[in-house]
Amino acid sequence: MNYIAFLHKDRKSDYGVSFPDFPGCITAGKTMEEAHRNAVDALTLHIDGMREDGEAIPKPSTLDRLEKYSARPGAMLLLVDIPMDEKTVRVNITARQSQIDTIDRLAESAGMTRSAYLVRSAMKEIKKRSPSPANPRR
Known about the structure:
The N and C termini lie far apart (37 Å). It contains four helices and four strands, in the order E-E-E-H-H-E-H-H. A hairpin with a 5-residue loop joins strand 1 and strand 2. The protein has a four-stranded antiparallel beta sheet with strand order 3-2-1-4, covered by helices on one side. It has one domain: 2-Layer Sandwich (Double Stranded RNA Binding Domain), CATH 3.30.160.250. The chain is 40% helix and 16% strand. Helix 1 crosses helix 4 and helix 3 packs across helix 4.
C-alpha cells in the first residue's frame, strides 16, 4: 500500500520525514535516499505496532486532500510503499527489568511501541552486518 510522506529539510539538519496519516511517526536521513529507506522502515514498524495494539490502520490520504494540508510548507511529497500482506507474529523475549525500562524509555522518545523499537534496532544491526558492495563481509 502506498502512503504519502512529507520530506523536508531545515538548514543545518538531516532530511526529515513525517506522515500525515500517522501523526508521531517520523524519521530522518543524511541524504534523500537514506531518508526514503528509513521512511519505509519507520512506517512498516509503526503499522506493525498499531496492529499489535489492535488499532485500525488508516487508508492512505489522497493527493487532493494533502494539497490543502499546510503542516509542512515547502516539503516535498514522498511515496512510501508498505507491504500490507505479511502477517505479524507475536514473540516473547526474556530480559532484565532495567533493560526493558531502558528500551521502553527509548521507544517512547522515538514515538514507537516497544515491539517496533526492538524490531527497528534489530533490523539496523542486520543491515550493518549484511554484505554489500560498500561493506563486503570478510
